[in-house]
């Protein structure tokens, strides 16, 4: 029997009982549990196979929760919350004692966001605790943007996926920490860099592996299909190099000559980066099922959401 259901009251019951429920957000599905339940938080780590040094994002139903969770809110954090919540911006701020150390992997800061999905906002407003929720995929693998993706991963280990349809944005939230009040991007994501800079001026990006003390989850290999994947800015050359193999193409818009290609997914016929982001993970899930020798992914324009998509594609290629 399917574990996918639209029944919000059933989700409330399970979560009140310290069980896990996969929840829809505008970015990707999350594997959610009560932040105050040691049992639920442990289950998140074991179900995902996630190392305990990798902290979780706390999801709240409104920004009023912020003052309950963090000790200080720098003016630029407030500006970002006002501009983007509910929405795909996660703020990393000094935590209050009520936030368990297991959530933050022992760090003095906590990551928090208000997700922009009507089903999950309704759910959060029916609970009297926030939800810890990492993306609902086994550690390192492709994030889920459909309820079926989660069901395929976890039908044996969780009881329910709350059905909120396909995720609109399609890549994870942009994570922003603060050093001396100044915003630093720890992870590029669904809110483009340019949109953030419009609100708070120029920001530094520490999105790479070397930032690991700040964003311990930013391991190089991540979001990865099982099939070998490469990222290229020269499609013709890369296709030639692999011509004896079963090739899957992941491209931004269509190409003229696709002979020798076994499977092809076009992310946006109309060059629309929003559309490309929303389709990215579904495309990777699908390509990974085609028994290919290699996935050749085309680098997108390096601005706006293209920058965030390129970041995910690059991580998908690491071995
Ligand atoms: O869009 C999203 O953010 C999705 C949905 C479900 O909300 N969630 C998500 O969670 O992507 P996850 O666990 O896959 O990624 C959370 C990232 C990790 O890289 C983690 O290291 C970082 O957030 N993080 C969490 N707490 C942190 C903290 N205190 N300091 C720095 N980074 C933190
Ligand atoms: Mg993740």
Structure, explained:
The protein is an alpha/beta fold. The protein folds into 2 domains: 4-211, Alpha-Beta Complex (DHBP synthase); 229-317, Rossmann fold. Helices cover 31% and strands 19% of the residues. The chain contains 11 helices and 15 strands. The chain has helices spanning 8-16, 38-48, 66-69, 75-84, 101-104, 118-125, 147-154, 193-200, 235-241, 273-288, 305-317; strands at 4-5, 21-23, 30-34, 57-59, 89-94, 109-113, 131-132, 161-162, 174-179, 182-187, 204-205, 229-232, 247-251, 263-266, 294-298. The longest helix has 16 residues, at 273-288. The protein is globular and about 60 Å long. Bound molecules: threonylcarbamoyladenylate and magnesium ion. Residues 134-135, 143 line the site of magnesium ion (MG). Pfam families: Sua5_C (PF03481), Sua5_yciO_yrdC (PF01300). This is Threonylcarbamoyl-AMP synthase. Required for the formation of a threonylcarbamoyl group on adenosine at position 37 (t(6)A37) in tRNAs that read codons beginning with adenine. Residues 5-191 form the YrdC-like domain.
Layout of SSEs?
Elements: E1 4-5, H1 8-16, E2 21-23, E3 30-34, H2 38-48, E4 57-59, H3 66-69, H4 75-84, E5 89-94, H5 101-104, E6 109-113, H6 118-125, E7 131-132, H7 147-154, E8 161-162, E9 174-179, E10 182-187, H8 193-200, E11 204-205, E12 229-232, H9 235-241, E13 247-251, E14 263-266, H10 273-288, E15 294-298, H11 305-317
Parallel strand pairs: 1-8, 4-6, 5-9, 10-11, 12-15, 13-14, 13-15
Antiparallel strand pairs: 2-3, 3-7, 4-7, 5-6, 9-10
The chain binds threonylcarbamoyladenylate and magnesium ion.
